[in-house]
Automatic annotation (TrEMBL):
This is Carboxypeptidase M. One of its GO terms (molecular function) is zinc ion binding. The active site is at E230. Keywords: Carboxypeptidase, Glycoprotein, Hydrolase, Protease. It comes from Phalacrocorax carbo. Signal peptide: none annotated.
């Protein structure tokens, strides 16, 4: 990094620290320095949220019940290097070391040989230090909401041109939430006649395979559902178009944040009410290669669509607790369903969460063999070489 910090603005009723029961959300833009629309509309979003607080009842409730982190630029050096507005690829895509930050994260399917860059490491540390539940990263060069997985193998369905995560239904819902609330993304018309996206969404792998992407890293290692938002055909449009981009995305940006309140949340404690960190809490039939675990306060957050689920809470070395929950759509109430677990006996010290640096999704084949989900299959799409995620 050329001596520049990566700045994050945090908004909420308690912006300086995490509060139990309040989920963490983030937006990240401009990880490709020449893709500038996201950087600008996140600045507009900050202004809108701050000025609407205590004036608009919906925004007020959103900020009172959500901690929102906004990083307008993950690649300030690349942005600085992009001197002239240009609709297509430029050198400013990369960071100061000439690396593509969206190919730079550890990968869940193959060993990524790229040297971890300072920007990437900073974001990885940030993810590790917060309990992020939902996220989106903002790009340019297409108009579509793309979701996990970007990479894959036969276990996740790549032979059929789709890489399906255990939470595929949730990801489709998240992508559609953005697309259907955007001024035109839902129409599915691409940036040229050869590229169309039904309903304005795509599975990342179906569009094109990439290794070391940020959204897969968030989902696998960060316990955070992230999608990639491609917001403009032109990567670096003229200044006079920025206001329209903000208006086109304004409602979608807000509606997407609300989805952090999907599903179920709660605490895992012992009989004395002490929190149990590193307890595994997952919905049956949705195994994650890095099991989703409670934070230092014993909290868990699981994004799930409305329905009936069996939630499995496990304290390593002790028995599991299986409890059936009926999850309503609580996004309008700005709070996921609350469901706590209490263990009559539990370890005094917490065992550190263990997850291999390079998990390979073959292991899920055994975990989910009994109830293999039907793959939702789309054909492979023709992609222009000039379009990059």
């Amino acid at each position: 990094l050329k001596g520049r910090d990566l700045w994050v603005l945090v908004l909420g009723r308690f912006p300086t620290h995490h509060k139990i029961g309040i989920p963490e959300f983030k937006y990240v833009a401009n990880m490709h320095g020449d893709e500038t629309v996201g950087r600008e509309i996140l600045l507009h979003l900050i202004d809108f949220l701050v000025t609407s607080y205590r004036r608009d009842p919906v925004i007020t409730r959103l900020l009172n019940n959500t901690r929102i982190h906004i990083m307008p630029t993950m690649n300030p050096d690349g942005f600085e290097a992009t001197k002239v507005p240009d609709c297509f690829y430029t050198r400013g895509r990369y960071n100061k070391n000439g690396e593509d930050l969206n190919r730079n994260f550890p990968d869940a399917f193959e060993s990524n040989s790229a040297d971890i860059q300072p920007e990437t490491q900073a974001v990885m540390n940030w993810i590790k230090n917060e309990t992020f539940v939902l996220s989106a990263n903002l790009h340019g060069g297409a108009l579509v909401a793309s979701y996990t997985f970007d990479n894959g193998n036969t276990v996740t369905g790549t032979l059929k041109g789709y890489s399906r995560s255990p939470d595929d239904d949730v990801f489709i819902h998240l992508a559609k939430t953005y697309s259907f609330n955007h001024a035109s993304m839902y129409k599915g018309t691409g940036c040229d006649s050869r590229q169309t996206f039904p309903e304005g969404i795509t599975n990342g792998y179906s569009w094109y395979q990439l290794e070391g992407g940020m959204q897969d890293y968030n989902y696998v290692w960060g316990q955070c559902f992230e999608i990639t938002l491609e917001l403009s055909c032109c990567k670096y449009p003229p200044e006079d178009q920025l206001e329209k981009f903000w208006q086109d995305n304004k409602v979608a940006l807000i509606e997407y944040i609300k989805q952090v309140h999907l599903g179920v949340k709660g605490q895992v404690t012992d009989k004395n009410g002490n929190p149990i960190p590193n307890a595994i809490v997952e919905a049956q039939g949705r195994p994650h290669i890095c099991p989703y675990r409670t934070n230092e306060q014993g909290e868990y957050f699981l994004l799930l669509l409305p329905g009936t689920y069996v939630i499995n809470a496990t304290v390593p070395g002790f028995k599991s607790m299986l409890e059936t929950v009926e999850i309503p759509d609580n996004t309008g109430n700005f709070s996921a369903l609350k469901h706590d677990f209490t263990f009559s006996e539990a370890p005094i010290g917490s065992r550190a969460a263990s997850c291999p640096k390079t998990p390979l999704y073959q292991e899920l084949q055994r975990a989910s063999a009994a109830a293999k989900p039907t793959l939702h299959i789309w054909g492979l799409m023709t992609v222009m070489l000039v379009i990059f995620k």
